[in-house]
């Protein structure tokens, strides 16, 4: 490379202290060791080049540690089952530790690494090199900065330690099971058989929970030397999470083909909605191994390669899929022995193992139970462990060791067709859809995620009658666990047993557009509905969310030139404007009817029985501009009205017109006025006509940065989730719009806009702690910097090399 050859003084000092090479120029080998060139562009975004994947991983680990060492270190504490030791033995930490210690005892991550290194049976050498390099790069930074870490979250803390490749694989395993075993972790930890009675039989256990970590039950479940407890799981938390999706995350995405863009080239919107704090933050980076891999985009912190992004010819994003990631098995227990079950007429004994974790008060132990299907899980009131019945799950992502190789292969695809072949062959996406576009103007939607093989025929034959309704409404499958014929089996085209093969998964390629906003695959493009797929993937011909409906309307209106913006069709600038247009579609549908109702009946009874004056709310709603911009007044009144359940419609959903029904406010439903009264009470002390930017913000040190966007319940596309603080407003974003990318793949190379809403670093002493957050506040952007010309044009470019000899 012949870019700007500048070495940052502070960074150079760290490198010298660590005994590493510090020079400008190109990345070179260090005697078979690690070497990477890091070019920091504006906003601290590293462009990392290395001659091999070990060096690339080293550069990523080093750069991510520079910016977010505390987040990575804490994630390692979590997957090492040491949260209770360092962060306190509360219920959440003890439960987390027990879950992760079970995975450690089971050697879950180690078993991933056994087998042929082809990226299907076991991770490839390239991916292993990246993980090895990442750990080495992180450790190199830590050696040089151990006493100089200036992030107050972990400065001087004992839990910041060198990491290993195994730590990273354990963290990767935890990410894979986030929507399956991880979502059911508390139910796995508290699952215990009914307590034994004096005559040796078993007594039924209350549906309100099992023995805690300091209780005891049959099978020797006990806690030693600690008062910490693990409470029973909340049924709503582990069962009714949105169709198996990880709670608190979501996304929007558009794949735009030649028929939707002014240039005829493909274009992509990436708009994932993820937490603004913690180790699930995204991190922007550009990674290159010349001739082998060249991708710009973002990854979750702690991961060594780009997961959402683009190369020179293809761009892709992900949205959280509605498909389920696990199935239940209803176990018929042996009378008098609640830890044995019947299978094809034979008795099988559960495997009981004692898991122990350390807390400041002493060790906590718990006996957990497994079957040949997987772990036994309890959800009180829904899936109880009684004298007759227990429930185990099969988690098809627990063996998904293919993901990093899959993303690596995605980054090498040269067209939508090649990308689809990668998805078909590898079947690696744990809980997300793919939306993509290529330089030739083709757009792709696919839910090629890892889905248990519950076909229509298997569901009909093996889901007991008492659970058929649950499957029909939620896709949650409970199979008869007493028959081998009800095992998941294998599709001929599936990458591994137990999951649906590509022929059973929804895929759509278009020349105009595809889109998804976390509803099912059905209306990825309404002109070509996807139908006939197993219910476990998602629902069809059912009501769509307001966010989904607005997402499609925005595309259609842009193509027709009826959205108030100049011209027709998309440029990256118009795509940015549409995404951050901050329309509240729910308000567009019902605000006027709500105001008329409010003005006609200006008092209402709240849920607590109190009488509420609605006059000020009526005025604020009438003057509201139907957006959630910084200057929008009264938008928070509608948001809280919608969140209180006020968006009730008088007209039914019509599957023949799914994007426009329902659309009329149920003005005669008393719950509508009750919801408005509840919203007014909740906002007591906050002016109902306040500007959104005056009451919704994100703190950065002593600075309060105004934040636009809003809740999906109000029909907002640009999702920002926060909780109201009485008398104050919304002082902290919890999750929502995170990494934003609008990229066009034209013949001169990728171009467009991108942004990380919460900024590159979580360290309040970093120069990159708040800069992109301020940029987001003003609807600004950073530019795509994929070509050397684009990168060299950056006036803030800083270049340095990191490396070491192999130890």
TrEMBL record:
Q: A GO molecular-function term, please?
A: hydrolase activity, acting on carbon-nitrogen (but not peptide) bonds, in linear amides
SUPFAM superfamilies on file = N-terminal nucleophile aminohydrolases (Ntn hydrolases)
Q: Which GO terms describe its biological process?
A: antibiotic biosynthetic process
Biased amino acid composition, Low complexity: 195-206
Pfam families cross-referenced by the UniProt entry: Penicil_amidase (PF01804)
Mind telling me which InterPro entries this protein's record contains?
A: Ntn_hydrolases_N (IPR029055), Penicillin_amidase_A-knob (IPR043147), Penicillin_amidase_dom1 (IPR023343), Penicillin_amidase_N_B-knob (IPR043146), S45 (IPR002692)
Family according to the record: Belongs to the peptidase S45 family.
According to UniProt, the name of this protein is Acyl-homoserine-lactone acylase
């Amino acid at each position: 490379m012949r870019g700007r050859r500048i070495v940052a003084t502070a960074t150079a000092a760290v490198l010298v202290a660590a005994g590493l090479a510090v020079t400008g120029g190109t990345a070179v080998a260090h005697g078979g060791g690690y070497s990477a060139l890091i070019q920091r562009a504006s906003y601290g975004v590293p462009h990392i080049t290395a001659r091999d994947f070990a060096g690339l991983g080293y550069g990523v680990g080093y750069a991510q540690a520079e910016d977010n060492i505390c987040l990575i270190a804490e994630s390692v504490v979590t997957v090492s089952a040491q949260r209770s030791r360092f962060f306190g033995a509360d219920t959440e930490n003890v439960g987390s530790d027990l879950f992760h210690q079970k995975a450690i005892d089971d050697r879950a991550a180690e078993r991933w690494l056994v087998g042929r290194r082809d990226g299907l049976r076991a991770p490839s050498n390239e991916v292993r090199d990246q993980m090895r390099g990442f750990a080495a790069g992180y450790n190199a930074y830590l050696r040089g900065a151990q006493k100089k870490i200036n992030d107050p979250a972990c400065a001087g803390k004992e839990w910041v330690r060198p990491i290993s490749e195994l730590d990273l694989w354990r963290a990767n395993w935890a990410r894979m099971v986030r929507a399956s075993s991880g979502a059911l972790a508390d139910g796995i930890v508290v699952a215990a058989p009914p307590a034994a009675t004096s005559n040796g039989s078993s007594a039924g256990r209350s549906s309100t929970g099992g023995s805690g970590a300091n209780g005891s039950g049959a099978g020797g479940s006990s806690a030693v030397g600690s008062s910490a407890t693990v409470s029973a799981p909340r049924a709503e938390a582990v069962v009714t999470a949105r169709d198996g999706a990880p709670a608190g995350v979501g996304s929007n995405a558009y794949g735009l083909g030649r028929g939707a863009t002014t240039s005829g080239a493909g274009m992509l919107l990436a708009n994932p909605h993820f937490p603004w704090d913690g180790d699930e933050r995204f991190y922007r980076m550009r990674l290159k191994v010349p001739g082998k891999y060249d991708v710009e985009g973002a990854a979750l912190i702690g991961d060594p390669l780009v997961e959402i992004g683009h190369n020179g010819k293809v761009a892709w994003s992900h949205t959280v899929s509605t498909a389920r990631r696990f199935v239940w098995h209803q176990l018929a227990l042996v009378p008098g022995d609640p830890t044995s079950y019947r299978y094809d007429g034979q008795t099988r004994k559960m495997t009981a193992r004692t898991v122990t974790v350390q807390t400041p008060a002493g060790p906590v132990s718990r006996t957990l139970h497994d079957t040949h299907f997987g772990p036994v899980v309890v959800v009180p009131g829904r899936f109880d462990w009684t004298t007759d019945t227990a429930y185990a799950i099969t988690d098809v992502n627990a063996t998904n060791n293919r993901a990093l190789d899959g993303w690596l292969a995605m980054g090498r695809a040269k067209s939508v067709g090649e990308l689809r072949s990668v998805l078909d062959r590898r079947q690696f996406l744990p809980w997300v859809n793919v939306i993509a576009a290529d330089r030739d103007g083709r757009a792709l939607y696919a839910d090629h995620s890892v889905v248990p093989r519950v076909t229509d025929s298997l569901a009909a034959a093996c889901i007991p009658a008492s659970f058929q309704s649950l499957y029909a409404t939620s896709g949650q499958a409970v199979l008869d666990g007493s028959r081998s014929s009800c095992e998941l089996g294998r599709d001929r085209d599936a990458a591994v047993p137990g999951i649906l093969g590509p022929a059973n998964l929804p895929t759509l390629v278009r020349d105009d557009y595809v889109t998804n906003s976390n509803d099912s695959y059905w209306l990825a493009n309404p002109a070509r509905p996807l139908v006939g797929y197993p219910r476990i993937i998602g629902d069809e011909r059912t009501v769509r969310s307001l966010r989904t409906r607005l997402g499609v309307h925005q595309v259609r209106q842009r193509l027709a030139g009826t959205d108030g913006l100049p011209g027709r069709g998309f440029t990256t600038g118009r795509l940015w404007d549409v995404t951050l247009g901050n329309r509240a579609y729910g308000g567009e549908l019902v605000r006027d009817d709500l105001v008329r109702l409010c003005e006609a009946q200006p008092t209402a009874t709240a849920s607590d029985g109190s009488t509420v004056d609605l006059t000020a709310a009526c005025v604020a709603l009438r003057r509201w501009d139907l957006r959630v911009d910084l200057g929008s007044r009264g938008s928070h009144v509608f948001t809280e009205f919608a969140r209180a359940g006020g968006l009730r419609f008088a007209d039914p959903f019509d599957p023949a017109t799914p994007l426009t029904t329902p659309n009329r406010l149920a003005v005669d439903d008393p719950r509508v006025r009750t919801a408005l009264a509840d919203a007014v009470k909740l906002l007591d002390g906050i002016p109902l006509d306040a500007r959104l930017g005056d009451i919704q913000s994100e703190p950065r040190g002593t600075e309060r940065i105004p934040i636009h966007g809003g809740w999906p319940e109000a029909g907002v596309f640009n999702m920002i989730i926060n909780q109201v603080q009485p008398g104050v407003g919304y002082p902290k974003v919890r999750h929502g719009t995170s990494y934003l990318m609008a990229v066009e793949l034209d013949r001169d190379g990728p171009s467009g806009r991108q942004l990380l809403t919460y900024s590159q670093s979580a360290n309040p002493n970093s120069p990159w702690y708040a800069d992109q957050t301020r940029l987001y506040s003003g609807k600004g952007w950073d530019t795509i910097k994929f070509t050397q010309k684009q990168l060299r044009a950056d006036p803030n470019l800083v270049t340095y090399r990191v490396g070491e000899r192999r130890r």
